[in-house]
Transcription elongation factor, GreA/GreB family (Sphingomonas palmae), 151 residues
Amino acid sequence: MSVAFRRESDDEHLEPTFELPLPSGPNLVTPRGRALIDDRIAALERQIVETGDAEEVKKLRRDLRYWQTRQVTAVETAPRSDGAIGFGNRVTFTLGGKERQVTLVGDDEADPAAGAIPFSAPLARALMGAEAGETVAFNGREDAIEVLTVD
């Protein structure tokens, strides 16, 4: 019989499961970011103990490996206090005529809807190092952003 018509099992046709990708660069975290990672690990460990489904346990263990890696590589970083924008600072600025406020946080703590953007985002990279009163280039415009306050 031809190999093309032989089927050993259903498992050989499943998509492979890969590890969750880690963001590149340093794993900077705020104290709140470290607490979120610790809470996520604790929740996953509880779920693993409580679930009886082997496939679900495999998925949870994969997620747990991701968060444990993030935990051991975390570098807790204090906000800059010299008036320049850096990791952990809350910034008020105008962009496109609208006033906005964001906090620069770690990749895992980011929540753009709540005003927390990752320090690796293009907007955050454009703001880094600027001070209140300065204009910053962004999206091809030299004066796209005006920094109002840095906390």
